[in-house]
Amino acid sequence: MADSPNCDLKSLSPLQLFERVTEQGEKVRALKAGKAPKDEIDAAVRMLLSLKQSYKTTTGQDYQAGLPPKDLILINNGTTKEEDEDLVDPWNVQTSNAKGVDYDKLIVRFGSSKIDTDLINRIERAIGQKPHHFLRRGIFFSHRDMDQILDAYENKKPFYLYTGRGPSSQAMHVGHLIPFLFTKWLQEVFDVPLVIQLTDDEKYLWKDMTVEKAYEYARENAKDIIACGFDINKTFIFSDLDYLGTSAGFYKNIVKVQKHVTFNQVKGIFGFTDSDCIGKISFPAIQAAPSFSSSFPQIFNGKENIQCLIPCAIDQDPYFRMTRDVAPRIGQPKPALLHSVFFPALQGAQTKMSASDPNSSIFLTDTPKQIKTKINKHAFSGGRDTIEEHRKYGGNCDVDVSFMYLTFFLEDDDRLEQLKQAYTSGELLTGELKKVLIETMQPLVAAHQERRKQVTDEIVKQFMTPRKLAFEF
């Protein structure tokens, strides 16, 4: 006889149903190949048809072998990656294209939605001001359910922001500022609470460091985050190593997520293997938990139905595809997301930067001289081999790292367009473009360093103390 379902099909997630249909299909094929009794084959086929119907009812789409439901397209960690396909997961970013990752393909592969002109215009109407240049220039390029967040805002319903940082070193680089600068803008224009997760537990599990060192890095990174200018009355920063032990609501949500994600799922999504420690396998539930307002009862007065908006780099999306799959089954709203492109290494856009390579980026601790030397020596150029060729043919802004950095940090749209035209025409040389970047980055980093000096240990403690924020729920 065919196996009967070992649990109510209605309790299964779309991905679990997908896996059940796949397994049952393989069983039917095995029974037929082994010339099993007809009644046994018929029972297995009935089970397969029942599972396929349940899958269609749950997802609204027919089962297709090899195509998981849209909200949980799996990452294979590059193991079966085609040669020309970009590798993007929470720990690795690689592409053979000097222009960087093909983000249009990534949108299709991840099943997210492009941030188009209509959405940007709607954001502008909602907030009554010009959108951030990160939106206007496509630096934040993809989203999940941002339209729902705007619906909530326009109907005066609450939502909150959640972003984070994995503290892998004492010094952050300028690329780490991108989600925080954008999140700060979002918090100001929408006037909503913000929670910032420091995943020091994750870094201990993945890196060769002690628990004490991971926690120290978390507090040092918190100073750089605070120096971005967040409002202490509207922002809660927390270390997992600290907060997990003090918040029953946070831990309850972790356990709920853990119960609804199988080992096979987490292996498929994150590429874990049997030799990975159990801490890694269970960690995604910890990154998922801040997506639910009940993880912060002191902020939201115990309310569980407040939607979350997560600005993050696109490599973090696997965590939240998993979260969005689990959320309805534990009675929580799905988090919405805004995805940013990767900030390129100085050596080129084929990889994201590494905090362990001091020459891969400009660090927030760098001196003006170090910034100048790094840009002049290491910033990949889209210019020609000789001045004569450059004057004749012009430079390539699509691969020039100095120009890429300016798209992030030069806020003047007209000035950026002038530089692009001058460099593309050959009027502006590579050395001159690098000089513009140096003159942009030196005061930016120096101003950040001055603000960071004002962030005392006491201020860090205030930001990281669980407390009510300046909102009523």
Automatic annotation (TrEMBL):
EC number: 6.1.1.2
Boundaries of every WHEP-TRS domain copy: 13-69
Transmembrane segments: none
Keyword Phosphoprotein: yes
EC main group: ligase
GO process terms (BP): tryptophanyl-tRNA aminoacylation
Superkingdom of origin organism: Eukaryota
Molecular-function GO terms, alphabetical: ATP binding; tryptophan-tRNA ligase activity
Entry similarity comment: Belongs to the class-I aminoacyl-tRNA synthetase family.
Record's protein name: Tryptophan--tRNA ligase, cytoplasmic
GN (gene name): Wars
